[in-house]
Amino acid sequence: MKQLLFVGILFSILLVACAPNTGDQDAEPFVIGAIPDQDPELLQRRFGLLADYLSEELGVPVEYIPVTDYAASVTAFRVGDLDMVWFGGLTGVQARLQVDDAQAILQRDIDEQFHSVFIANTDSGIAPIDDISGLSQLEGHSFTFGSESSTSGRLMPQYYLGEAGVELSEFKGEAGFSGSHNTTIELVEAGSFEAGVLNEQVWLSSVESGDVDLDRVQVIWRTPAYYDYHWVIRPDVVERYGEEFVDRVTQTFTQLAINNPDHKEILDLFSAEKFIVTENGNYIQIESVGREIGLIK
């Protein structure tokens, strides 16, 4: 009888040990957000799917909350409405400067060698250029950036324009701010602006999907590489979820594998093959340029 009781207890222990780790689904939600740099429907699919994956892996409820603009993402992170945010290089630096001990923890494989592309309407007379000095031909033409706080759609392009000696006052009319990379393509393709600049990955994805009329708009220059998009996490998450939580979050991203069909869907939505670890120090150049052109005080 005692032997049967022992076997029953052992069996129960094994069942518990082998059961999936669902964690505390009654815990306070871990809330993620992102800069609204692309079409809202795409962002909802991307981060909704990611939230489901994170919730399952971390064992706590994970929610994605969209924001209205880049500045709102920084504010929401600062006040604690968002626990972790997918920032661009500039907004990530801005957010960390407002939250002591906030950490940049993850980026895509492509984000340590990121590029912007300058594009032009084919009727504008603006030709492709071989080096940065050729940006001077944009003087006297209408031009649009993306969001005012975009790293790839404003910060680094403005820096390279300055290196070429091009002042924003030398554009035809005032420089525009489209609000998103997709919109920049649409405006230049339509001729509303003769030229513009955007995130290279959005350009490549739009070309691949057939959403760009290459008879109407072309790339004229690709910038040198810089660090860009990354996840930034608030330090107080450890008070709610434990000291190992940041490491667990990092692991859930780095274990995403392109050869796993479920993982591939998430990675494809991020235009990435994998996520890799990053750190605050990788964005020193971004902070320096931001201060130089007055976007970081």
Number of helices: 11
Distance between the termini: 76 Å
Spell out the CATH superfamily of the largest domain.
Periplasmic binding protein-like II
CATH topology (fold) name of the largest domain? D-Maltodextrin-Binding Protein, domain 2
Which percent band covers the strand fraction? 15-25%
Q: Rg to the nearest angstrom?
A: 23 Å
CATH class of the largest domain: Alpha Beta
Order of helices and strands: HEHEHEHEEEHEHEHEEHHHEH
Question: In the residues, how many domains can be counted?
Answer: 2
CATH architecture of the largest domain: 3-Layer(aba) Sandwich
Number of strands: 11
| Structural class label | alpha/beta
What about the largest sheet? 6 strands, mixed
Q: What form results from the Cα inertia axes?
A: globular
Fraction of residues in H or I helices: 40-55%
Average predicted confidence as pLDDT: 91
Side by side, the strands of the main sheet go 2-1-3-10-4-11
Report low-confidence residues grouped into runs of 5 or more: 1-22
Summarize the structure.
The chain is an alpha/beta fold. It has helices at 2-18, 40-58, 70-79, 89-98, 151-163, 181-190, 200-208, 237-241, 245-254, 261-269, 284-292; strands at residues 30-34, 62-64, 84-87, 103-108, 116-121, 143-145, 176-177, 195-199, 217-222, 230-233, 275-277. It has 11 helices and 11 strands.
